[in-house]
Amino acid sequence: MEPRQDLRFCQTPDRVTLACAITGSGPRLVRAGTWVSHVECEAREPDTWSTIEALSHHHTLLRYDPRGCGLSTRDVPPFGFETLVADLETVMDAMAPEPAALLGISCGAPLAIAYAARHPERVSSLVLVNGYARAYFSAPTTPPHLLEEAKLMLATIRQGWAQEKSPFRQIFLAQLMGSDAADPVARHLISERMRLSMTPDVAERHMRINYAIDVKAECALVQCPTLVFHARDDQMVTADQSRKLVAWIPGARFVALDSDSHVLPTRREAGRVFVAETLAFLGGARPDKPRLSRRQKQILGLVAQGMTDKQVARELGLSPRTVEMHVALALRALGCANRAEAVLRADREGLLDDVV
Prior knowledge:
By secondary structure, the protein is an alpha/beta fold. Helix content is 48%, strand content 13%. Helix 3 packs across helix 4 (108-118), helix 13 (309-316) crosses helix 14 and helix 14 packs across helix 15.
């Protein structure tokens, strides 16, 4: 059974129907349209849904499929960036009449920036993830090799978008997912969403728009508090792009994520940092702080110093088996898959500060 989300629909002035998905309760958080979008597919992806659910604990999260994508009208006339901004205006007018927070991920970031600049009275806060203001064809200093790469992607997208074994699909997923592409389950889910999200023709239209975006001038017009995230090793949009956003948007704050994935952080420490920082920024409560026993804190503190289980056992006068047990309990309490993640999270939560 799929997780619960309410589906609503609104219509643009040119009679395109936009599909919206609503989860949670509380102040509105609206995700600007982004491509590879299919709100029903997202609900079937456990990792993606876990992040959606975490944000929905404190907010009414509204996501929508852009025109030509997902459950929205698929057969659409030619469109450009301004059309996509107008579609966001339609969604905001229909679904978020009061001032709301905007979440812009990837190419949704410049959409959110443009809307916030043009409608400052409608946006309470701005959260941008792996975004940019200028793209390959609009930035004056794009290196020649990146321009050639962009042209090659455009030349092959129609033939390769829906073909699972095409070189385009392999390169695109590798850049989109980073090391997560090595997980066959995660790769299959994103690949399936990619296939179902739009036709090759619409995918090419969106890519051409994305490669030509330029909202640098509008960054200076943003008046609301802004939080900017970027994966340190993003292979699709470099972290330098978000650092430029922070320089161009007045008062914006930057948070680097230890990830190489371009999609919304969902797993491991990067996902937890994103959720915690976003909820705190938007005024919601942070997720409950995990609890560790004094012994678990002691052991993690020594693990953080590079000690093995045997060395920890000798240091504390315990058996290696007892140390292993405490480490396993700490991993469970912290929701981490391995010791490195556990040490990072325990340190970030301040759980190791009082270890003696």
